[in-house]
Specification:
single chain, 230 residues, alpha+beta, seven-stranded mixed β-sheet, 8 helices, globular
Length: 230
Amino acid sequence: MIQDIIVNLIVAIISYLASIIFHNRLRMKIWFQSILRRNKKIRVSCAYLFQIKQDGKYLLIQGNRIDQYQPVGGVYKYYNSFKEVKSKLELKDESESHFYENGDLRLITKGKYLVKFIDWFETRKNREITVIRELFEELQHSEILIEEFIQNIEIEYLKTIKEEIRFSQHFQMDEQKIFNIYEAKIPSYMLKIILSSDRYCLVEAEEIERLCCTRNGLSKKISETAKYVI
């Protein structure tokens, strides 16, 4: 009987540890990658994207800086209270030559601080936690008042994507991207107004998977991040 209890206890412990490893496998991989890059620069970017659907299709917006269609969304902002954390983790603002705007959570750190940065980000302290700002900025239309917009949309959290650390040719350094994905339910009459602009289009999931769509007889690129809103 004692032997059975011991066996069951060992099985329970192994199962518990296996469950922890399985559910934290990506985090453990990031931790391992960051250790290998202990003193190397790593660019971190924390953003949010919106899944906006109509009739089974996905709403995308034309990029302002890159010629492509991409999900509606934006980069989180940090607040003045972030100053202490920023100094402790040796975080530096990204160069303004790279799409950076004041207060963006697009920063440069070292590998040894990466996991601590992710831990901080998940506390939601010292930073923007609402997502309505960028949603309205990217969908604003003269016929839609902000009060009407806020009162008639529903926003629900769907998931978080943490990409693996990979080398960025554009930034010439390793990069860690984090995306929070939200579903935004927008009334049909508002979407009709929004879609009157050539900046927006509705695309099929298959087009997102192919990373291209056809607009006015021309092939247009779709961003890789669009796959996260499917």
